[in-house]
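User: Can you model how 2-phosphoglycolic acid sits in this protein?
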Amino acid sequence: MHRKLVAANWKMHGSNALTATLLGTLAAQPPACEVAVFPPFPYLAQAVHLARGAVGIGAQDLSAHAQGAYTGEVSGAMLHEIGARWVLVGHSERRQYHHENDALIAAKLQRAMECGLTPVLCVGETLDERERGITESVIATQMQAPLHLLGERFAGVVMAYEPVWAIGTGRTASAVQAQAVHAFMRSQLAAHDAKLSRLIRLLYGGSVKAANAPELFAQPDIDGGLVGGASLLAEEFLAICAAAH
Ligand code: PGA
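Assistant: Here's the modeled complex, given as structure tokens:
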């Protein structure tokens, strides 16, 4: 059994005050599970400082490039230098609004690992894809380029299954639906390399709340959660972490 991991994706929310409140609470009452918090770029250094090592801090994206003339981009080396140790890669909002494709996402994963960051690779189907019955082939395709590019190094990746139709909608995948996709992801990993399916933690994301976390986290192939909206509420987030044991 893996140690459970609960990740907080703040998206484009927050302020200095909210960072102080949320990280202050987590540092004062460190949850028993592993926790990684992903604030927007401007709050990362403050978050690293306030976390005092009690929780990990990560960015929501990184550049696929090492350095250079890429206005607006942030490199993995910069993130590592300021104390970030995690990074989200391939979140559906980046796939949708920034047209990130599987090849770019694989390149970002590789860059993250070269920079000493643990990437959380997000995959998931849209409502239309689920209704057309192609969830598994969509997930398999999203996993293919990263697995191929990283090979054995994929063992250092954490994965998150986030059905797009469940993100920010209040519509959570049922524990049975989530478990079924997680089991499929594990079988895909096993088909590539038996070791990988044992080593890799698989998080569920999409409207995770204190009320549904216990049932989701009790599933055999769910090793924690990637939490958006509910991670901005200190008490709610602590309650979600408490469900991960
Ligand atoms: P949500 O977001 O918990 O607000 O649905 C999850 C995510 O997008 O990571």
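A couple of observations from the model: The pocket of 2-phosphoglycolic acid is lined by residues 9, 162, 167-168, 205-208, 226-230 (CB under 6 Å). The chain has a mean pLDDT of 96.
User: Helpful, thanks.
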